Amino acid sequence: MVSFETFLLTNNPVQRKNSGTMGYDVPEGVDIRGRYDPEFSKILTRDALQFVADLQREFRNHIKYAMECRREAKMRYNNGGFPGFDPATKYIREGEWVCAPVPAAVADRRVEITGPVERKMVINALNSGAKVFMADFEDALSPSWENLMRGHVNLRDAVNRTITFHDQARNKVYKLNDQTAKLFVRPRGWHLPEAHIFIDGEPATGCLVDFGLYFFHSYANFRKAQGQGFGPFFYLPKMEHSREARIWNNVFDRAEKWAGIEKGSIRATVLIETLPAVFQMNEILYELRDHSVGLNCGRWDYIFSYVKTFQGHPDRLLPDRVQVGMGQHFMRSYSDLLIHTCHKRGVHAMGGMAAQIPIRDDPAANEAALELVRKDKLREVKAGHDGTWAAHPGLIPACMEVFTNNMTNAPNQIHSMKRHDASVLIEEDLLQSPRGVRTMEGLRLNTRVGIQYLAAWLTGAGSVPLYNLMEDAATAEISRVQNWQWLKYGVELDGDGLGVKVNLDLFGRVVEEEMARIEREVGKEKFKKGMYKEACKLFTRQCTAPILDDFLTLDAYNNIVMYHPIESSRL
């Protein structure tokens, strides 16, 4: 994993531009290297930056220690070890404790919509009819300075109910309905830096910037307008161990004390989207028990994490990614244990993402896609999930209907679906190798999706429609690590009768052919203007690297960092 101190020294130097003489008013030790904008300066106030800097100074050593523990665990797995339940915390798993009661404001979470913090998206998602909108600073956002700062402006305006958007092409004005979804915010993971803000000479921690700026500007109005005395509400990504949840709990305690609000006001749902975290679900909830409103099955990142965790295990090869669904034993076991754990502790067990998007020019194909969504959501609600995710507003009615028809008018299933049968699941159930075959089309699809997603990400889009699915960083990560795994171990493509083995020559031909296909599909003009060649270079390098990088986006981040030296900031 690239450290905060060294990530800026990698292959691609950040871009630098002059921005004139205007500057932000910053407290001591804070250096803003992003472009000055008068609207951004209303977010990056001296007091808001002081709040973020205080969080950074208090918790940075805890974060560095947690990242070092991740590296040590990775070494164990690469040397043949396996993640598993920690004997030292058996007393937590077997104890009779529960989390704080779920606030009434978020008791009903049957359908949640997710998306980036783009202005029009924020309005449409809050108006979508979903119970919750998760506004995303993480996998659905390309974290350029412009995207991040405009995202904070948008969320401030949404909480204040002043947000509007004029679509000039359609001559349409968007504004909030009277009734809107509850707003949750997902900051970035612990591992990601914010290179446009330096604190005491090093990049700030991305998630503390995301959390700190949003909380500072929005906590008071959110609690009045949306939270019914609670909030703000958050989703927490990419955790691998309960020590990381403990840091978040302490951040929440610190923010509540600073704001003078009751302990337990801030509430968060943790995404269980790494393989090590599935063995820490009780411990994560225990650390956050005053602030928790559940766990979520982040299933796409979970598949990515399975490959990453077992990168040194040649007997853990994934089949084509389209075959790694919830029917696989290790995936079903993960979902069942999450439901049992959450309901035992009195909080929500949220289901996974429906990534389909409407196919407007093919009604038959659209109905077939909707039927797949209905079947997936029926499986979730019957298993005991309290709600689910959708990537597009067009899916919300179908998802809502399935959950409503199967939940007997209750807002959730916390007390009615305990899933005691899942208490017998053991480590082997959660680690079982997925079954299936590997095909040339699987290799091609991984390559095509990975390159196109990365090309969009480099130009500012983090949520990208590809082949009737809404792709984010998680699916691009699956594409990358599966290609890397197949190349490393020279797997045989055994599912289509070809019998060829994956090697550098074959992969090189596939990349060349898929780039030609991408150019045909998007058109020569878009291909020429886009960053497909740069994305291809990055993606190919990642897939063929001798050592697997932990995150695609951390390597690619240097390509979107843009410094604007200024003359008048007070540093």
TrEMBL record:
Domain of life: Eukaryota
Membrane-spanning ranges: none
Domain Malate synthase C-terminal: 438-560
Pathway: Carbohydrate metabolism; glyoxylate cycle; (S)-malate from isocitrate: step 2/2
Recorded catalytic activity of this chain's protein: glyoxylate + acetyl-CoA + H2O = (S)-malate + CoA + H(+)
PROSITE patterns for this protein: MALATE_SYNTHASE
Stretches assigned to the Malate synthase N-terminal domain: 28-91
Keywords: Glyoxylate bypass, Glyoxysome, Peroxisome, Transferase, Tricarboxylic acid cycle
Residue span(s) of domain Malate synthase TIM barrel: 182-432
E.C. number(s) listed in UniProt: 2.3.3.9
UniProt record similarity statement: Belongs to the malate synthase family.
Name recorded for this polypeptide: Malate synthase
